Each structure stands twice: as structure tokens, then as C-alpha cells.
């Protein structure tokens, strides 16, 4: 583990005046815990602090601004791209103590929360009134709202309902100079001023630290139906995705798993009696009113019919459906049974190019002699491409990096984007120039300078 330089003595003194000892830490164990996120790299910060109010967050940033200390905001640390990874000597601002639901207004369908509230806490509070918040990342049980906003996270429901940014009415945040500002509205309409809410969402903590968010809720669907379709290969499954998305019914979820993903689940004990010789699985779901779901589900399953379809299971019980979704959401960790390290990408291509992308990936797996596990939100063309490697094997790692280079070029060639929901973080930052043109990158830099003139907020991440 890298050894972190200490904070400047003047900054240490100011932190001691601001926060009680239990909410500021420089001990070895705490620094080690916050030295990483869900990536394999570790960087030890200079200190970890736990603010309880927006004013404390603002004063922490002011201290950092005066002493030019990097500030790294931290949620649950469940990100895949190093977005919460510290830099040496950084002040990690962890939001565990800002975990209050401040307001729940079921009539106006909104909930106001602090950034440390988990996605699941939002769902539980809203669910008491028959409502829910549509963003549903795989880590919903423990990921925090602040992290959801920072990375503009998504999940299976995004195909029908959109991503986190589509369900945020407004927010409060602290700039890189320690100024507190509000953005957005409490209403579903509002066009006064620039959309600073949208600017903050997906900025990965590089433009400001969110201290409060007003989220839009929607009625929970009365019912849902889920089908599991087995295909001979991923190309056949990809063709079925195109047929579904060309139809007049938008599924509430449309997930794909390739053969290696299925094998990883089998190794983990998830065996759902798949058809023999299954090379890919699609999960197709419809939700809404009871009457509408019957017709929509029929329309969706009819479009599964085509070359390579082996079977469609539509009569699963609620328990079987829960188990199937539990298996799907466990995939990110289950694939580590294939190799200890996954280089996990969340690329997106137009749905009409998904089959071509999958075919190219199969070719790359052969060329570079690497297992590549593919699964993801097929209805958006959002594929999780996992290069499975042994980090101690230098030759294998070199092949993996060469393969990744080809993957990114292929995605852009097919009209796609390098990240659909994980963000850029530190892992993808070196590749951003391939997607964003020079004028766009310069505009990004100017916006960053306006909100964070000393560039202390989450340096080395995003753009």
C-alpha cells in the first residue's frame, strides 16, 4: 500500500477545531479501509472525515482550498472505475453520518435526502406509500444516493424509465471553493436558469459535493411478469433484443447473459434448469397495471421467437423470479470464479449494433486467449464486458490491456460510448480523448475551472 503524506499542520489544527475526534481519522486502520473502492488498486489518503451537515462539508472544502489539499468524496465505495479512489494525501470526505431522510411528500411524489442515504432506504421509505425511485443499480442494497448522483448510475429498469439523472428534481452542493448552492426545483417543470442539477449529476464529485438531493418518485407497478429465454448463442439472443426493441412495447427490463456468465452462476450454485446447449439467456420483464401487463408480456414474448431460440419459460413463480434476479445481480462477483481479477467495462452501443459488438468480442477472446464474460442491460445496448485475468501473470495482463484497447475502439466505431453507468473515474480517464473532441474537452476544463479553480475536487477522475 502506498504511504500517504500527512496533511499540513495548519490543516490538521483546523480539522481538530471543526470536527470531534470520532469524526476525523488518521489512524492506519481507517486510512486502509478508505484506500480503495471496488477496483483492485489502493491509495492511502491523508485523512478521513465524516461531516454531519452541509455547513461542515463546506468548511471542510474551505480548509482544503486554503491548504490546496485534494478532496475525494466517498459514498459506499461500490464503484467499478476508481471514482472514489483517493490520491496520496487526500482528504476523504465520507458521508456515512449524513444519512437522514429529510422529507417525504407522497402527494407531490418527492423525497428529500442526505447523500449518505442508501438506495434501499429510499425504496423502503417510498414503498410505504406505494411509490418507488426507479434507479436500481445492482448495488442498491448498500450504494448511497450521493454516489448514484455522482456517477449517474442506472440498472435494469433504465430501459423503460431512464437513469438516475432522470429522477432528480434538485440538489444542494458545495463547490471547490466551499460555496453552498442550490439547484433545480421541487416541481417536475422548471426552466429558470441553466440546469445546474444536470451538470452536477454524473460529474463524479469533480464539480461539487452533493449535500442534499430531492428525488422524484413514481407509483410502484401493480404487477410484473418475467420470462427467461434460452438461446443457442449470444448472436441469436442479440437478434431477439433487436426484435423486441423495434416493437411497440418497451420492456421494464431486458437483460442478457452469455455462456460464460451462465457458467459462473452454475459454479455459484444458481441452477435454473436451462435448456441443453444454452449459449445465452435473456430475461424479459413487463410491469404496470394488471390488464396492461398481460397484453404487453404476450407481445414481448412473441418477439423472442426466431432462429436460435431453444425455450421460453413464462410461468415462473414469484420465488423463482426473485431467485433469477438475485442470480443476475450476483453476476458481477460470481464471474471471479473464472479468474481472480475482472477488468470490468460497461460500454454501450446502439441496440442495432449489439450483435455485431458481441461477435467482435468473441473474436477478441480468441485472438488474445482471454475469457471475456458478457452480460448486461441489453435493452439499452449497455453491455458489461469482463476481461477475466490473473494479475500475477504479466503476459496475460499485457494481452488484456491490448484487448481492452481494441474493445474501446470497436465500441466507438459502432457509434457507442465508453461508459453507460459506471462513470469514468480514474480507470477510464486515459481513454476519454477518444470519445470527446478537443472543443468539448476544453469546455469541460472551463466548467471545472469555474466551479473548482484549484482543481482540488476528486482530481484525476472523469474528464
Short description:
The chain is an alpha+beta fold and 463 residues long. It contains 16 helices and 18 strands.
How many DSSP helices? Answer: 16
Low-confidence stretches: none
What percent strand? 15-25%
Tell me the Rg in angstroms: 23 Å
Let me know the largest β-sheet. Answer: 7 strands, antiparallel
User: How many strand segments?
Assistant: 18
Strand order of the largest sheet: 15-12-14-13-17-18-16
Mean pLDDT: 93
Going by helix content, strand content and strand pairing, the class is alpha+beta
Distance between the termini: 26 Å
Percent range of helical residues: 25-40%
Overall geometry comes to: globular
Could you characterize what this model shows?
The chain is of the alpha+beta class. Helices cover 34% and strands 21% of the residues. It contains 16 helices and 18 strands. The protein has helices at 9-18, 28-33, 54-67, 119-127, 145-151, 158-161, 196-200, 234-245, 259-267, 290-302, 318-329, 331-334, 354-367, 394-413, 432-435, 438-451; strands at 24-25, 47-49, 71-74, 91-94, 101-105, 110-113, 131-132, 168-174, 180-184, 209-216, 218-219, 223-231, 253-258, 280-288, 309-313, 341-348, 372-377, 382-389. The strands form four sheets. Strands 15-12-14-13-17-18-16 form a seven-stranded antiparallel β-sheet. Strand 8 (168-174) and strand 9 (180-184) form a beta hairpin. The two termini are 26 Å apart. 48% of the residues are buried.
